[in-house]
């Protein structure tokens, strides 16, 4: 998969699937680079820092949307709704919808275990 995703055509196809235009495709490649693959590829950077940033941005955007859309909700209501939206199960549904699993760069052991 690594050689495939490194091609510009494959990166463009993935960007098209997620409906986002990247000015720098290396960010997309980094986003799809799992730690296990990076270790096998000579310790190139993994997606972990982007994952942390993305989680924070997603949480903020969802919270802001809920806050503005439901002004009558309490802090507890907002937190509960955000947790229902931003969780592993709901994010997995989105990842599956965009076929991100097939584009994720995994190390051999991680790939064999199912990622």
Description:
The protein is mainly alpha-helical and 115 residues long. The chain is built from eight helices and no strands. The protein has a single domain (2-112), classed as Ribonuclease III domain (Ribonuclease iii, N-terminal Endonuclease Domain, Chain A), CATH 1.10.1520.10. The chain has helices at 2-6, 8-17, 25-31, 35-40, 48-69, 75-85, 88-97, 108-112. α5 crosses α6 (75-85). The protein is elongated.
Task: Give a nutshell description of this structure.
With 115 residues, the chain is an all-alpha fold.
Order of helices and strands: HHHHHHHH
For this structure, the CATH topology is Ribonuclease iii, N-terminal Endonuclease Domain, Chain A
What is the rounded distance between the termini? 13 Å
CATH superfamily: Ribonuclease III domain
> Structural class of the secondary structure composition?
mainly alpha
CATH class: Mainly Alpha
Number of domains: 1
Structure annotation, total helices: 8
Largest sheet: number of strands, sense, barrel closure: none
Q: Tell me the number of strands.
A: 0
Computed over alpha carbons, the radius of gyration is: 17 Å
Shape: elongated
């Amino acid at each position: 998969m690594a050689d495939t995703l490194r091609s510009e055509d494959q990166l463009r196809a993935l960007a098209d699937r997620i409906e986002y235009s990247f000015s720098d495709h290396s960010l997309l490649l980094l986003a799809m680079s799992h730690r296990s693959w990076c270790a096998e590829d000579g310790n190139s950077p993994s997606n972990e820092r982007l994952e942390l940033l993305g989680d924070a941005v997603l949480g903020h955007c969802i919270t802001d949307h809920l806050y503005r859309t439901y002004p009558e909700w309490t802090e507890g209501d907002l937190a509960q709704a955000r947790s229902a939206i931003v969780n592993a199960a709901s994010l997995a549904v989105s990842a599956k919808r965009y076929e991100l699993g097939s584009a994720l760069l995994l190390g051999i052991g991680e790939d064999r275990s199912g990622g």
